[in-house]
Specification:
Blueprint lengths: L2 E2 L1 E4 L1 H10 L5 H13 L4 E6 L1 H8 L5 H12 L4 E6 L12 H13 L4 E4 L7 H12 L3 E7 L13 H13 L6 E5 L7 H15 L4 E5 L7 H11 L3 E4 L13 H7 L5 E2 L4 H14 L23 H13 L6 H14 L9 H15 L7 H8 L11 H11 L8 H6 L6 H10 L6 H18 L26 E7 L2 E8 L2 E4 L2 E4 L20 E4 L4 E5 L7 E2 L4 E7 L2 E6 L4 E6 L6 E2 L4 E5 L1
Parallel strand pairs: 1-10, 2-9, 3-4, 4-5, 5-6, 6-7, 7-8, 8-9
Antiparallel strand pairs: 11-12, 12-13, 13-14, 15-22, 16-18, 16-21, 17-20, 18-19, 20-22
Length: 599
């Protein structure tokens, strides 16, 4: 008698995040979801994580309506699961208790049945309030221990003993749960370590607790990990569907079915029905640009553990901003960032903090500019890291951010923060003239300015699709740039032209193209007595806290750009009057673009 292996289909959440940066329109994938339900699949991950914010940021869609639509298609009995980030719920920033409770209430209202809930630092304090809120809302709670392999030479955490001790702390804290998941978002854990961890968890929990293991194929060992987990006593694994399987995603259902042939385990599927679903799915996604790294195993990942769900999102942002040539250096620098940051697990939001700091170290010099999220993490504002961060980095973060280190519980800090919580969100809505509903409160609380832009009807669709009118020789990018296949002197080049920037085979150049007879000489000096404030890097204009005619002081914040999911304040270079604001909220700007003129 073969042992039936339970599995969850991650294609419609983790798959989208791991390939397309979560930027997928509901109407485009709905036929594939319908086909999967009709094929008899009964457990899907469909929201939360990056598939909440991304719908407001990039798809101009309401995530609550998306969840409601999928529940209507799936019917009442299918298990629809979402992902929560502990006290961070569905964002990069942490939240107070009132927003944590509202999250569970609203997700229950819109058709979710199970919430998988993790903390990237494995700080159990961050799971207490979130776990209780999920259960009190009438949802199944799948509590998580997060895993990764440390870069070679590091020690002090991320061992089987560390993971089992974290699980024991969850039990001691009295956190209610229905199942336990060990989540390896970077796919880097050594299979032997997976086996020892699951075996230890089974011994601690007994035979009746539903035990899950989750990984990605990013490092090339996910099938070996899954086999090790099943042999050690796991009940469930996570699998995906082509075209969002393998590479940065979970293994394909058919790949795992094949790996289990001749063993004591069985998925209980009809592989031919799965093939039919995947054909529908491939057709649905045919117009979406699929980055090549989404299909690949990345050998460097065990040294710099970047999760599949963050890797392609970040490389796509680098492409959008003409910085893809920096990727090898960024991923290399990430190793040091992990080594010195306290060994929090590389999964959102920490994976983004790691990448942002590696990005800053690459562009601005080592530790010259501390990314806010990374700095707050080493200072304790997201909880307790598995080991103490490097004291030198803590000191640098303390000086740059103007914050003292803390050991206080995250939710206690957030509960008294006047800029967080339901009342702060209500104020944002009222100032924008928007209805104060629970849904709008949650959107404003978790998506801030960009959430309000969506609610005001000012958001723009920003998904990456191939321009079929050019027969595949030209593709659209988020900024409206175009990519050409150019043959010159018998050699082929891939050239992306975006205003004054050209990327040729991955290398970025500044260019200026004019008609020869119309190209006047330019001294480059600003006209009159005006100082021009330019964008130091490509990004989105997130906020403009000044108006034309305002007097500003030297060093005053005049614009905030968002780049690589970081807010980058732009300051006045001198005191004076704002003579002209040349951009508006929501604009995408390139490095060197003039933003403001000060007289």
């Amino acid at each position: 008698m073969k042992k039936r292996v339970h599995f969850m289909i991650t294609a419609f959440r983790d798959g989208f995040q791991s390939v397309y940066g979560a930027r997928v329109l509901t109407k485009d994938f709905l036929p594939a979801f319908e086909a999967a339900v009709q094929a008899g699949l009964t457990h899907f991950e469909i929201g939360g994580g990056a598939r909440f914010q991304s719908l407001y940021f990039y798809c101009n869609e309401d995530a609550f309506q998306m969840m409601k639509t999928l529940r209507e298609v799936a019917g009442p009995d299918v298990d629809l699961q979402t992902l929560a980030r502990g006290v961070n719920v569905v964002g990069l920033d942490s939240q107070p208790r009132d927003v944590i409770k509202l999250h569970a209430k609203l997700f229950k209202k819109y058709g979710v049945s199970t919430i998988r809930n993790f903390d990237a630092l494995n700080d159990v304090n961050n799971l207490i309030d979130s776990g209780r809120a999920i259960v009190e809302a009438g949802l199944r709670h799948e509590v998580v221990v997060t895993m990764m392999e440390l870069p070679p030479g590091c020690e002090g955490a991320h061992t089987p003993e560390f993971y089992i001790d974290t699980l024991r702390q969850i039990l001691d804290a009295g956190i209610p749960f229905d199942s336990v998941c060990f989540k390896d978002a970077s796919g880097t854990s050594v299979p032997k370590k997976v086996h020892e961890t699951i075996k230890g968890a089974r011994k601690l929990l007994g035979d009746d607790v539903h035990l899950v293991f989750h990984s990605h194929e990013t490092a090339g060992v996910s099938i070996a990990q899954y086999m090790a987990a099943l042999e050690a006593g796991a009940d469930q694994i996570d699998l995906s569907l082509a075209p969002v399987s393998g590479g940065t995603c979970q293994p394909d259902v058919l790949t795992m079915w094949h790996a289990l042939r001749g063993t004591e385990f069985d998925l209980g599927i009809d592989p031919y029905k799965i093939m039919e679903v995947e054909e529908v799915f491939k057709e649905c996604m045919a117009d979406y640009f699929k980055p090549p790294e989404a299909l690949a195993v990345e050998p460097r990942i065990p040294f710099s553990p970047m999760p599949g769900g963050a890797l392609t999102a970040n490389t796509q942002m680098l492409r959008d901003n003409g910085l893809m040539d920096k990727y090898p250096d960024i991923i290399k620098n990430m190793e040091e960032v992990v080594r010195r940051g306290g060994f929090a697990t590389s999964v959102t939001p920490v994976s983004q903090f790691y990448f942002q700091q590696a990005f800053n170290n690459t562009l601005f010099g080592p530790w010259t500019k501390i990314a806010e999220g990374y700095g707050k993490m080493v200072l304790g504002y997201f909880g307790k890291t598995p080991v103490p961060p490097d004291p030198e980095i803590v000191k640098i973060a303390q000086e740059q951010l103007g914050l003292e280190p803390t050991t206080e519980k995250v939710v206690d800090i957030n509960d008294r923060d006047p800029n967080k919580g339901i009342e702060a969100a209500k104020k944002m809505l009222q100032e924008a003239g928007l209805p104060v509903t629970e849904e709008n409160i949650f959107i404003a609380a978790t998506c801030k300015d960009k959430g309000v832009m969506f609610l005001k009807g000012e958001a723009k669709v920003n998904v990456r699709k191939i321009d079929r009118s050019k027969e595949g020789k030209e593709e659209k990018t988020a900024s409206g740039a175009k990519v050409y296949a150019v043959t010159l002197g018998g050699k082929s080049y891939k050239v992306k032209v975006d205003g004054s920037t050209a990327v040729v085979n991955g290398r970025t150049y500044t260019v200026e193209v004019k008609e020869a007879e119309d190209a006047p000489a330019s001294s480059g000096a600003p006209s009159g007595e005006r100082a021009q404030v330019t964008a130091p890097l490509p990004g989105l204009v997130l906020r403009i806290p000044v108006q034309e005619g305002d007097h500003v002081e030297d060093g005053q914040e005049i614009i905030v750009l968002e780049a690589m999911k970081m807010e980058n304040p732009i300051y006045a270079p001198k005191a004076g009057t704002v003579a002209a604001i040349l951009v508006k909220q929501g604009d995408h700007v390139k490095a060197g673009d003039v933003l403001v003129e000060i007289e």
